[in-house]
């Protein structure tokens, strides 16, 4: 299974283009006044003065996010930060602003749900048989909430497309799931890539690698925390605990 790494993405903006957390510090968000460092995940806007990369996607993106999925932990919000004009985020299940997509057929092409339902087809096959995709809809929630989300009246008639098999870049052996569980932003990235390369038959040159920029910034933070912890443990002579690793991985956020 394919797995992207920082080194394999030619279009990824170098992480060191970001000012250090010490330089940046947390500032008050202009909209909600909460203190944030890089972007405000509640308002879904970058903080002033933070050089966030911007990308152009081959089609539009709607993220339908379960309200119980914390904004601070949601990687899907990264798409709104780097592709703000092409991305919309809705807070489900009570999203009053979420339109009814109906059958998904539209003048500019299809709206499709990225979800491996029984009737899902590959993005390549869908494009070859039905035509252009104008918009991907991606659900952002835990596996427990998937049923509620896919049964939303606005979504339930949409055609589903499934991704090829990939391995998450954020996998740690201690984690509960195997490495085929992608972060939502990884699923968005692969959907866009499959559409460009296999659907539109256009070569991909890293144009939207930066969809994963904030994801890798988060990973960098996790790794730095692990290293820091390892040092502390070495100093105190403690043995590394698996439980602690798990906790660390789920609790890290980009703020
Ligand atoms: Zn805010």
From TrEMBL:
It is found in: Nucleus. It catalyses: a uridine in tRNA + S-adenosyl-L-methionine = a 3-[(3S)-3-amino-3-carboxypropyl]uridine in tRNA + S-methyl-5'-thioadenosine + H(+). Keywords: Nucleus, S-adenosyl-L-methionine, Transferase, tRNA processing. GO terms for biological process: tRNA modification. Residues 36-227 form the DTW domain. Residues 1-25, 228-255 are annotated as: Disordered. Pfam families: DTW. One of its GO terms (molecular function) is tRNA-uridine aminocarboxypropyltransferase activity. Catalyzes the formation of 3-(3-amino-3-carboxypropyl)uridine (acp3U) at position 20 in the D-loop of several cytoplasmic tRNAs (acp3U(20)). This is tRNA-uridine aminocarboxypropyltransferase 1. It comes from Pristionchus entomophagus. The lineage of its organism: Eukaryota, Metazoa, Ecdysozoa, Nematoda, Chromadorea.
């Amino acid at each position: 299974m394919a797995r992207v790494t920082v080194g394999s993405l030619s279009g990824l903006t170098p992480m060191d283009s970001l000012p250090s957390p010490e330089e940046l510090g947390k500032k008050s968000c202009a909209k909600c006044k909460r203190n944030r460092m890089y972007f405000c995940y509640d308002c879904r806007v970058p903080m002033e003065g933070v050089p966030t990369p911007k990308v152009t996607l081959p089609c539009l993106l709607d993220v339908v996010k379960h309200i119980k999925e914390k904004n601070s932990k949601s990687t899907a919000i990264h798409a709104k930060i780097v592709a703000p004009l092409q991305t919309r985020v809705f807070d489900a299940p009570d999203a009053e602003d979420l339109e009814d997509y109906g059958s998904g057929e539209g003048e500019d092409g299809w709206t499709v749900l990225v979800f491996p339902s029984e009737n899902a087809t590959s993005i390549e096959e869908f494009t070859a048989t039905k035509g252009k995709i104008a918009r991907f809809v991606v659900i952002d929630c835990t596996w427990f909430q998937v049923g509620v989300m896919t049964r939303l009246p606005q979504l339930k008639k949409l055609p589903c497309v499934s991704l090829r098999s990939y391995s998450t870049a954020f996998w740690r052996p201690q984690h509960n799931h195997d490495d085929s569980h992608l972060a939502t932003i990884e699923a968005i990235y692969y959907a866009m890539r499959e559409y460009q390369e296999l659907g539109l038959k256009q070569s991909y040159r890293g144009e939207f690698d930066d969809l994963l920029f904030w994801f890798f910034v988060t990973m960098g933070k996790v790794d730095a925390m692990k290293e820091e912890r390892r040092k502390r443990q070495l100093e105190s002579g403690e043995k590394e605990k698996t439980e602690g690793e798990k906790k660390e991985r789920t609790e890290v956020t980009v703020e």
